[in-house]
Amino acid sequence: MTAAATYIERLQKAADEAQSLEVAYRREAATRIAALERERAIAFRRMNLMRSVAEAAKPQVDDTSDPVGQSGEEIAVARALALVRVRLGWLSDSETRDKTLARFAPVVIALHRVSVGQDQGMPDGSQAIGEALGRFEAWYEGAHGVSFWMLFENPMPDTPRVDF
């Protein structure tokens, strides 16, 4: 082998190594971007749902005069859980759905209590809400193997295009 051929062979090895490093980096970057994308989607889903649930959990003017004898907290929980059902598109009951809503109820209770000033003796009522939500999320993921927030994944069905 000539000196020139040996030199070209080293250049080929260097080029192949550079290409391998680039491919590996692109793979790592794509994986990291996908993870960040999932985290962002979950963060926005969490914020949007909790904003709506917090509004539903607030005491309302008519909560004190319930003819059935429910407390303001019970009314707030019922209102907020109904909102969660609607947001998830749960139009019918099932054991799993009922269990999920029952496990979510402490989050609503924490929100309601903070909104009426019963922050359970905590200096920062948001801590009680965050802990309740964290327990719910951990339970859901442990019980179902996926994040609760994946329920809000709404794939758009393919619809045929119709020309008139």
Folded structure, characterized:
By secondary structure, this protein is mostly helical. The chain has a domain at 47-151. 69% of the residues lie in helices and 0% in strands. The protein has helices at residues 3-57, 72-88, 95-115, 125-144. Helix 2 crosses helix 3 (95-115) and helix 3 (95-115) packs antiparallel against helix 4. The longest helix is centred in the first third of the chain and has 55 residues, at 3-57. The chain is elongated, with a radius of gyration of 26 Å. It starts with a helix and ends in a 20-residue tail after the last helix. The relative contact order is 0.08. The mean pLDDT is 88.
Class of secondary structure makeup = mainly alpha
Poorly predicted parts: none
Distance between the first and last residues' Cα: 73 Å
Largest pleated sheet: none
State Rg. Answer: 26 Å
Gross geometry: elongated
* Helical percentage: 55-70%
What fraction strand? under 5%
Short description:
This protein is mainly α and 164 residues long. The chain is built from four helices and no strands. It has a domain of 105 residues.
Q: What characteristics describe this protein?
A:
164 residues, mainly alpha, 4 helices
